[in-house]
Specification:
By secondary structure, the chain is of the alpha/beta class. 40% of the residues lie in helices and 17% in strands. It has a domain at 96-283: Vaccinia Virus protein VP39 (Rossmann fold, 3-Layer(aba) Sandwich), CATH 3.40.50. The structure holds S-adenosylmethionine.
Length: 285
């Protein structure tokens, strides 16, 4: 009964507001006001200043801001095609994704500065149209150090055999992806050091050109089983000081990914920072 009432309250926003006021009066909650709203998107609204406000105030945030504007311009000019969004919504979607993309950019920048290798090597597992890796490559280019990027994706529909029961509704997703489109998108960065490994994880690891050393990994596969395979395969190659960024860690529907990653990480020398965006950063110690 209690659950049904709570569900009803959550559905109708006026009830939700009244319910929260009542809780506040009864001393059972604190009131939160988000005003002014500096950011709204990805299941969050924040009333604190964003790092990229007014074009950014540090070298990193300024360059992130420039990267973000460049991407949006290329999307508006239809030079970059993001097939995962409806064309009429794509610029609004990118606005809502800014905190996520800032964290991609920041983590890549951090991994480059915090590792010892001469050539900084990145790998992304789950590339789609190349949106997130666009930010990571831009961070690497900006630091002016030699780098190389390994990209793994099926560029084809998700298959049931790689999904847990809780994830089976994703079977068939991403059937519309094309490797050619991703290549065209990333060509706008004028970077030669990109290695495209097309195929399903884990099988693709047996025949791909794989990195021997890594500074930064991004895992965004919407599935826990291949996520763990990527971790198992590349953990030893990740430099101390390097980073693994997880995209789906705390998103509703991906509880199994978080549970599996945390179980896997138990005996590893690392710290995981769980972020309000639903992402998580694993720092290798
Ligand atoms: C959420 S999308 C990645 C989005 C991308 N990181 C971005 O934001 O630009 C998930 C991707 O994982 C890929 N994928 C899912 N399961 C896979 C598997 N077992 N092997 C290879 N690719 C897989 C899909 O093809 C899809 O492109």
């Amino acid at each position: 009964m209690k659950l049904i009432i709570r569900k009803l309250i959550n559905k109708v926003s006026i009830f939700k507001i009244l319910f929260n006021i009542l809780k506040y009066i009864l001393g059972k909650a604190s009131l939160t006001s988000v005003s002014p709203i500096y950011f709204d998107g990805w299941k969050m609204a924040t009333g604190t200043r964003t790092p990229w406000i007014n074009g950014g105030s540090s070298a990193l945030s300024c360059h992130f801001s420039e990267t973000d504007s460049k991407l949006k311009r290329l999307v508006a000019e239809k030079k970059i095609i993001l097939t995962q969004f409806k064309p009429q919504n794509v610029l609004a979607e990118l606005e809502g994704l800014m905190w996520r993309h800032y964290i991609v950019y920041w983590s890549a920048n951090y991994a480059i500065k915090n590792t010892k290798s001469k050539t900084k090597i990145f790998a992304e597992f789950g590339v789609c149209d190349g949106l997130t890796i666009f930010y990571a490559i831009s961070a690497a280019k900006n630091l002016d150090e030699p780098f190389k990027i390994y990209l793994y994706d099926a560029w084809d529909e998700m298959k049931e055999e790689f999904l847990l029961d809780s994830e089976k509704t994703s079977a068939g997703s991403y059937s519309y992806l094309s490797l050619e489109n991703t290549k065209n998108n990333l060509n706008h960065l004028n970077v030669k050091e990109l290695i495209y490994n097309k195929g399903y994880i884990p099988g693709v690891f047996d025949r791909a050109d794989n990195p021997k050393e890594l500074a930064w990994m991004h895992i965004d596969l919407n599935a826990s089983m291949p996520t763990i395979h990527a971790l198992e395969n590349f953990w030893d190659s990740l430099e101390v000081g390097g980073i693994i960024l997880f995209d789906d860690f705390a998103w509703p529907g991906y509880e199994d990914t978080q549970a599996e990653v945390e179980k896997w990480a138990c005996d590893k020398k690392c710290n995981i920072l769980h972020l309000p965006t639903g992402q998580a950063i694993l720092f290798k110690l």
